[in-house]
Specification:
Blueprint (H helix, E strand, L loop, with lengths): L7 H11 L1 H9 L12 E7 L6 E7 L4 E2 L1 H14 L3 E7 L4 E6 H17 L7 E5 L4 H12 L3 E4 L6 H11 L3 E5 L1 E3 L5 E3 L1 H10 L6 E5 L15 E3 H10 L9 E2 L3 E6 L9 E5 H14 L9 E4 L6 H14 L2 E5 L11 H9 L3 E4 L1 H10 L4 H8 L8 E4 L6 H14 L9 E4 L11 E2 L12 H4 L18 E2 L5 E4 L12 E6 L14 H9 L6 E10 L5 E6 L3 E4 L2 E4 H9 L4 E11 L3 E10 L12 H14 L8 E4 L14 H12 L16 H25 L1
Parallel strand pairs: 4-17, 6-7, 6-8, 7-14, 8-11, 11-12, 16-17, 16-18, 18-19, 19-20, 30-31
Antiparallel strand pairs: 1-2, 3-13, 4-5, 9-10, 14-15, 21-22, 23-24, 24-25, 25-26, 27-28, 29-30
Helix pairs in contact: 1-2, 3-4, 3-10, 4-5, 4-8, 6-7, 9-10, 17-18, 19-20
This protein binds adenosine monophosphate.
Length: 705
Amino acid sequence: MARSTTHLQEETHRQSLEDPESFWGRQADLLHWHQKPSAVLRRSQKTLKQSGVTHSSWSWFPGGEISTCYNCIDRHVLAGRGNEPAIFWDSPVTNTKETLTYSQLLDEVEVLAGALREEGVRKGDVVLIYMPMIPAALVGILAASRLGAIHCVVFGGFAPAALAQRIDASRPVAILTASCGIEGAKGPAPYKPLVQEALRLSTHKPQRVIIWQRDQVRWGPTRRSEGERTWQSLVKSCRARNVRASCVPVASTDPVYIIHTSGTTGSPKGVLRDAAGHAVGLQLSIRYLFDIHGPGDVVFTASDIGWVVGHSYIIYAPLLAGAATVLYEGKPVGTPDASAFWRIVEEYGVTALSTAPTALRAIKRDDPDNLGFKKIGARGGLRSLRGLFLAGERSEPAIISAYQALLDEYAAPASQGGAHVVDNWWSTETGSPISGRAMFPQVPSAEATDTDRTRQVPPSPIPIKPGSAGKPMPGFDVRVVDDNGKELPRGETGNIVMGLPLAPTAFRSLWQEDERFYNGYLKRFQGEWVDTGDSGFIDADGYVNIMSRNDDVLNVSAHRLSSGALEQAITSHPLVAEACVVGVPDALKGQLPFAFVTLKTHPHPTSAAPDRSLEAEIQSLVRSQVGAIATLGGIVQGRGMIPKTRSGKTLRRVLRELVENAARGEPDKELNVPSTVEDAGVVLVAREKVREYWGARRGEARAKL
Ligand code: AMP
């Protein structure tokens, strides 16, 4: 008899696409509604005012009313789970730890929401949040949601110009901020000059700036005439008068928040998140993908509240499930060392750890043999860990295999289902993973949730395939198409797109920019598909492989080469720690791939060009793994020269500009470095390296003449 090879994850995915109404209707039943929706999904046509273009649109749970704050907090307290931990704040940079139970969180949020209401915040208003990783930030976010306001969190490390741009784009009535942030081991960074400069630059002026005073650096006296207020004083006054706010529900399709995309391409776009779809989709993903079900489970998402990962998996999803979340004010390395993540897993009994591969690379650089992991693992400190979730950029197969081996040895034992590395692919626009390996591939339902928890061994996830980001998640219809929108056969590389409607957590438009939404995401494929901006392939077994952003695709003699594939080949060399490939203009071939390479150990003194034998070895890896067509046009070696965004994405565009300028003989031309850059000094190092490399190359050319 033929054995069915369909895995539960695929079956679930099929059901979610074939019958979205009943699939998502069952998920919606797991939440509290102030008003039940009249339908699960409504498809419609939308005509754009300016261009007159009509395109397909949709709405999830129309007619419903919901409060995300109620579902995250009140619901659990009312169910008698008020004493369970909600937030573990761990701040090595201030030497502080704090636990907030669900009851304490409710108390803080109720009072702050009361204070914000007194300061003029109403349903539908925008509240901008520019905060470090402290509990007050989460309280602020949840208090805004409690009032039915729309929050817009701006990463607390952004410079004034970037903040001003986001103030003008979102037009908040109030800004919640703090007196300082603390950047890793660098010490406190006062926010006052940043916020005041941003408000000087912005055209829009909010009515209120509410400041959380931290002990490390005080804001100084607040200027009342400028709308400045001290957060703690407002709360104290409200508490004394017992001023509290109850939850204000919003329509399902009202936004719960605006988030600006990280800006690796173009100016930031204000992605809108619908209240109901967000809550329903996240409560599914946290159980299904992350295997987090409620009290006793601990989520540690090592990201920042300013990024989508932070919104979804530091704040909302763990709280929707009634689990605890770790809020970590520190870095993967240097606060104080490369064991920080593993220390946290042990200390709080973390069950799901999410991070970006770049953090693991940083840990590897400081602790190449993973001694920190092994030391804590050897004393059983990592047994609680069931999942290591990687997202934000492509994970090279080597990193996945290495961590899977570590988890097999030290994390949750096989008798409890084991522990898995889960590469999950998603974007700010989608709000939750588009693909991954469901850790608990059984869809929760109102009847089944509690009994599921008593099971000993969960159903296994789909087998791991290092280099792939798993298979599609419910509601995401993922396809690979050519430039005309025609679907490509399995295994062929092309544009990765998604069919309509998108899953409930995903956006349906941009904040006050419907035309830009259409032009940026739907127009390219005539409204049939949503363009993810990524390219890659789906293999014969249905695994999704994300190889690069489309703007990172190289065109060499009319062959499309993905920078990801080339970087993978280069990093398979044992001496190479990291690689970044960009295209150099070439008269003959259009573009030639050019590599920036960081070695695990550097020769002293380092020259910009690697020695001949290393160069030959790297070239041969590229030729054997990608093809002769991909032969590199040059390799620059160095340390600290691959710039990243604050959220850990490689800024290929900046390196590409540098190389293009050098190739045109303009190495000093000003670069367009986005405000999201983590460390602008890295760009200067790269510029020097490129200059040195090109200088030597010109010399070589002359010698040949
Ligand atoms: P952002 O919206 O800033 O979070 O960036 C989203 C982009 O990050 C995606 O379009 C991908 O290019 C990239 N990305 C996110 N997760 C992954 C992953 N697991 N593998 C490869 N690329 C990823």
